[in-house]
Structure formats: structure tokens, C-alpha cells
Design a protein that fits this description.
Number of strands: 2
Shape: globular
Radius of gyration: 25 Å
Largest sheet: 2 strands, antiparallel
CATH class of the largest domain: Mainly Alpha
CATH topology of the largest domain: Cytochrome p450
Number of domains: 2
Strand order of the largest sheet: 1-2
Distance between the termini: 65 Å
Order of helices and strands: HHHEEHHHHHHHHHHHHHH
Number of helices: 17
Helix content: 55-70%
Structural class: mainly alpha
Strand content: under 5%
Amino acid sequence: MSIIELLASLSLLLVPLFFYLTRNSWSRAPSKSNPKSYPLIGSSVAIFANRNRTIQWTSDLIQSSPTATVVLRRLLNDSRVLTGNPANVQHILKTRFCDYEKGSKTRQTLFDFLGNGIFNIDGDSWKFQRQVSSHEFNTKSLRKFVETVVDTEVSQRLIPILSTAAANKTVLDLQDILQRFAFDNICKIAFGHDPAYLLPNLPEAEFAKTFDDAAKISSERVATLFPFLWKIKRFLNIGSEKRLKEACSDLREFARNIIKEKKQELSNKPSHETVDLLSRFLSSGHSDEDFVTDIVISFILAGRDTTSAALTWYFWLLSQNPEIEIEILREIKDKSESPVYDEVKDMVYTHASLCESMRL
């Protein structure tokens, strides 16, 4: 076959392939809710241009969309749906949750960090982890959590640190303080382990920094336009992938030490005294250390950044709305004679303000 004939044959193959890959990504005029999309590369230009402000940019797109939903087309028509529509969120996370799996691509991308933990798994394993963990968040457990763990952490650690800073007029990094507060809390209630990060001297939180690095690099994997790049770096063990490997190794060592301590503790006391989440998993017969390690890492992720981010945002909003702060303080004073759990449970205005903060 001559070169000309070969090129002609390749052209016949490439033309339909081109149309297939670009069937949904022909260039169209950009709008506030739809960045310009091109053949083959989709909206990769806009995604790359906004890579350092992704959250703000995508939030702006969603807010500008009449349906509060946008589709971002990436390289080779790899599409992602972003939604802020409450009906869509309920459909995805509740009504038809079983239809929206993480998928093999996501699991592969996050596996080094999350393994087979609840945030990175589907099917029976997900159901089992959710079933066991849900027992930990019933009314009785939450009451114990508030009356013992949180109350102690607030009264003996958080308030003294804030009071000292106020008296000395020193500046605190509130987000760092609340991350330490949340980390101590989640470790105590989930694993019965006190890392004691919220001490007056604010000890070096090396584990927390390592956890942040692992989460950040894993998130960058998800967001990258060219997944093959992180796979090459992982294969060569260089750059961010080398740091991720080291961070994950440290995290798993930390988790294994907690598991080892908990197994020793369980061997020395009756099973009915197993009150924390890790104890429940170990008592359910799961002795696979890697599996339980994945669970530990997932629950640290679930309890640390979510709580601290929500509280940081909440206090910033209060600082901008002093009239709301006055109402909350009034409610706290009115309820302060009640037992701790009842006091918190009956704070209707404070509850509403927290919900509104999270909505915003």
C-alpha cells in the first residue's frame, strides 16, 4: 500500500472518530454559567485558567445557572456535572443514591489515600461501614459525645486558649484552633484516642500536616486535566507523588498504632464496654488490618475538616452580623441552667443560624 493510500485510510478512520469525540463539545459562545467549549478539549482552557480558584469559579458558575447545575466538558469529552440544586442533591445522595457509584476511575485516583474506606467504595462494603458507623451516631451516643468528649474539650482546652488570647490581646489562627479541636474530638469519639493537639502550647501537629498533604495531593489528582501525568510521577516516585506515598505511609502507621492499642484494650475488658466506633468495627469480626486502617483514615477525614471549616465560616459570618450574635448570646444565657445536652438540644435559634451558615 502506498503512503497516499495509507493516509487516505487513516483519514477515513479519524473523521468519524473526531465527530464521535466532539459530538457534545462543539465550540459555543460562553455564558456566565457555561464557559466556552472547544472540540476535543472541551472547556479545558477555562478550567486551567481558574485552577487556583476552582471552588470560587465553579460556585460562580452554579449561581449563574438558571438550574443551579452546570456541565464542565474536559479533555476528550470527559464531562463532570456540578450542581447546587437541592432537588438534584437529594436525588443523588438520597432518593437514587444506589445509582450514583464512585466508579472505578475515582476509586483508582483516591485509593492510595482512602483505600477501601467508606468514601471510596460502593456496594456491600459501603453498606456495612455505614451500618456500623450509624450506630455510633444515635441519640444515646451523641448525648454521651456532647456531655463528655465535647464538653471536656471545650471547657478544659478551647475556652482557656481563647480566654488567654483575649486577655493578652494576641492573635490566633482560628481555623488552626478549630482544626485541632475537631481532630481531638473525632479521634476521641471514633477511636477512644486523645491526640491532645489542643493543648495551651499548641504542640506541633505533624500528623495533621501530613494528613493535609495527602488530602491536597489526592484532590489535585481528581482535578487534573491530564491524569496520565500523576500516574507517570507515581511510577517514577518523584515530585508530589513521592510526597503522597510518604504521607500515606505515615498516616497508615499512625492508624495501625491506634488499632494496635485498641485491640490490646479490648482484650482486657468485656465487649459490652466497647463504645467507640473503632471498637465496634473490631468487635464485628473484621480483623483485616488494612481494611480497618482505611476506616480510621476515612473517619478522620469525615470529622476533622468538615467540622472546622463549618465552624470557621460560622464565626466569620457572626463577626459580620452582630445582631445575630446578640440573639445567640441571649439564647445561650437563657439555656445555661440546663444539663449540657439539653442545653444544646434546645437552642433553636443557634441551630437555625448554623444551618443557614452551612447553606450559605
